[in-house]
Amino acid sequence: MRSLYLTILLALIPVLLTAQQKALFFGSVTDSTGLPVDLANVALVDSREGTMTRADGSFELALPAGREVEIVISCVGFVSTSRKVSLAAGERFRADIILQRDIRSLGEISVSARQDRASTFQRIDVADLEYMPSTTGKIEAIIKSQAGVSSNNELSSQYSVRGGNFDENLVYVNDIEIYRPFLVRSGEQEGLSFINSDLVSSIRFSAGGFDARYDDKMSSALDITYKKPTKFAGSVNLSLLGASVHVEGITKNRRLTYLAGYRYKTTSYLLNTLETSGDYKPQFSDLQGLINYRFSRKVELSFLGNYSANKYQFIPETRTTEFGTQELPFNLRIFYDGQEVDRFDTYLGALSLHVQPSNNLSLKFIATGFRTSERETFDIQGQYWINELDNTIGSETYGDSILNLGVGGMHNHARNYLDAYVLAGSHIGSFISGNHLLKWGLKYQYQDFYDRINEWELVDSAGYVLPSNGEAIVLSKVSRAENQISYDLVNTFIQDTWEINAEKANLFLTMGVRGSVWNFNKSVMISPRATFSIQPDWERDMMFHISGGSYYQPPFYKEMRMPDDQINRNIRPQRSVHLLVGGDYIFSAWERPLKLTSEIYYKWLDDLIPYKIENVRIQYAGENIAKGYAAGIDIKLNGEFVAGAESWFTASLMQTREDIEGDSVAVTVNGEKFYEDAGYYARPTSQLFSAGVFFQDYLPNNPDYKVHLSAFFGTGLPLSHPDEDRYYTTYKMRPYRRVDLGFSKVLKREEQQLAERNPFRHFQTIWISGEIFNLLGISNEASYTWIRTISNQRGVPAQFGVPNYLTGRRFNVKVTAKF
Questions:
Q1: Does the pLDDT value for residue 7 go beyond 50?
Q2: pTM for this model (two decimals)
Q3: How far apart are CA 225 and CA 223, in angstroms?
Q4: Spatial contact of 599 and 580, defined as CB atoms under 8 Å apart
């Protein structure tokens, strides 16, 4: 496979040598009131070359030098305009475009930039996806870099938002709710996420305080819209981590559009940097397609389908880990037998009928079916040695083992199977009347789960089985159950967005209410939500907002399952009440457009279901026995620190704590040990401080050469022992620190002419990227392995928490071609 990549790179050298100098056309697009217009098209006439404006209205487009070209600027809801320019090689030309509103095109598909800015959602530029270095999906990588979002595992596409866990985030594609596998317990097992970045046209993300339009989850909402093709096009991506291809097009009568993508991913190249050596065989692939058929200008039918096959096979051999402190260093060695084989197959199909009787009225009807079939099987034996190391500098045995602290073995066994179905039917409508945008919806959902659990662990320390009763062999951990449940969920919502254009300010008020009935235990949930925004008529472009609402989260199957693997039939929905205040400020510095955004938030949490996190596996208590809160502040500064290249910096302060009924903490007074109520303590996702950077730059006179830097720092997360009954977090992981660096070179622009025999003449653009993952080679922690010995020696406890480190430094090569 590597020889194939080398052949491709060598074949691209002639293209590199014939690359032409370009000129840069950049600037901003605003409406007649001076507000930025995002997602406007900036395209070269008689060419496929083009781009879209960012959330602040800015854009940049490379143009052929030495001849006159015409650029068209267009956006739904505005009258198109054009510019003709003739630029020299390396020249930079700025143009600030003002678009006039097209009153005739106002409808559901035309949501004003002002209303979008006035919400708690932020738009993310799709163009930034092309170059961001990432070991997971591009969409998830860019979400993880936003303020208030954190992820301490580069192998996983999951993320935590403002103190919530992975299961508290909503994800939509074309108004269809997306689900993920349930049994995944580590980032190594996790395959491709649902969202295919090659098919995406727009991204909207809210870290809290989102509208009643969105379903019942307690943390965040990610709203993805796939492309609606206007011409035939496609792309091919090849890298050391896999490959992808996509095609899109439209028929001659312009009634049928199609969009399809195939992805293949293998992470064995990354996993070989882990401390556990062995034969890693991860194979992840998916096929996804979207078909739209327009019966008339008012009626359209679409189908979204997806099949994903994620297979993970691992045959471990040995593991060597050094841990402890400088004063008391340890070494763990394990020799393995056995293997792990997991498979996660998911299917999704969604049929949507969109009817637009008039420009002001839109009606949408959606039928969705989702199925997941998951198999987790492993039998792994390990023989381990724990030794104390010599830490005397200058000693001949420095770093060698000087004392054995424990010898033992362990056997982990699992035969876990889960089959689940989710069927849903929904209606979404909207109506525009004057300054009001009214939305409503109704949804029915049926969920069915069939789970078979057979998992146990045997620990043998120096000939003694732990725990030991002196008479019989006792398994240290046993899980056996067979659960089958099904239930219905019905919800409805109505909301109105009212825009008031006053003399001294523009006002926006969105108010709505969401009602749900969950028949598992006859729960009725009423969730009012509101957002008020104001844009004063000041010389400085500023907007402020306050948002609040109630967010219930009916338990999915995992939350219902108690530690003894039985289903809690009396479980209730969790609830979070959000209150947030924020604003944004668009300004210019160093002749560059910049945007500063900040939000302060507080979340009241009750009827919580406590949980522990091990790697990416969430183990719930299965009972509503806690209350808590989350509070913090998020800040983001984004814009063109380098002209024509979007970058951003984020910082977050956050604390989330909970009080669990019956949880206790050991206290020693005068030599006597007793337990008292633990009170409020940190939740597993309480990351006090985090900061992120995504920075882009290019050579001053040649934007074809670019560099992309992605960095993240997060303070250590609380940690509790997975086998203890208590949830009190007595340990803390080390801070997560990671830097990824990428370089890219555009090898072929669309207008570049190649020789007749050159196989790359059929491609529109080609570029090559080099990526360095974990540039600083930092050993970040994913979880802990808990090793027990039968007795203490030299005051060392009989239980050791050994860190499981994430991936090391790796170099990746990626080639992308568009046609």
A1: no
A2: 0.83
A3: 7
A4: yes
